[in-house]
Amino acid sequence: MRTLRVLVLAFVLVLGRTNTSYPQSSWRWGNPLPQGNNLHAVQMFGAHSAIAAGDAGTIIRTSDSGATWSVQDHAGGLKSIYAMYFLDANTGFISGEALNDEGVLLKTTDGG
Question: Would 98 be classed as within a structural domain?
């Protein structure tokens, strides 16, 4: 009987423990800012600049390591952008799905 009491007490202590975690103070909530669409592709340009793209033709860009993002004119007529490849900060290719469910490949020469 004593063994059973010890096991029950150990079980209660294990279940009753709280696991406390503390968030890092430098992190902050960023979604849905600056927009709320799912993003599927991202490309970095050096240490501080990046472009990301996703659903509804969304294209966003940062030049300060992701602290702020600006929404670019979206790729009209696209349901989603799934992949992208940039040769430099201005010239790149994106692939995705058009509103009519056909695949598309687009080229930009002005960074999106």
Answer: yes
Residue 22 has pLDDT above 60, yes or no: no
Reading the block at residue 36, the tokens are 């709320």
Task: Count Cβ atoms below 10 Å from residue 37 Cβ, excluding itself.
Answer: 18
Q: How many residues are there in the chain? A: 112
Give the sign of the dihedral formed by CA 43, CA 104, CA 81, CA 34: positive
Q: Under a CB-based contact definition with an 8 Å cutoff, are residues 67 and 45 in contact? A: no
Half-sphere exposure of 50 (CA within 13 A, CB side): 15
Distance CA 20, CA 22 (A): 7
Q: Where in the sequence is the domain holding 71, given as residue range(s)? A: 37-112
pTM equals 0.66
The pLDDT of residue 90: 85
Both tokens of residue 30? 């960023």
CATH number at 67 reads 2.40.10
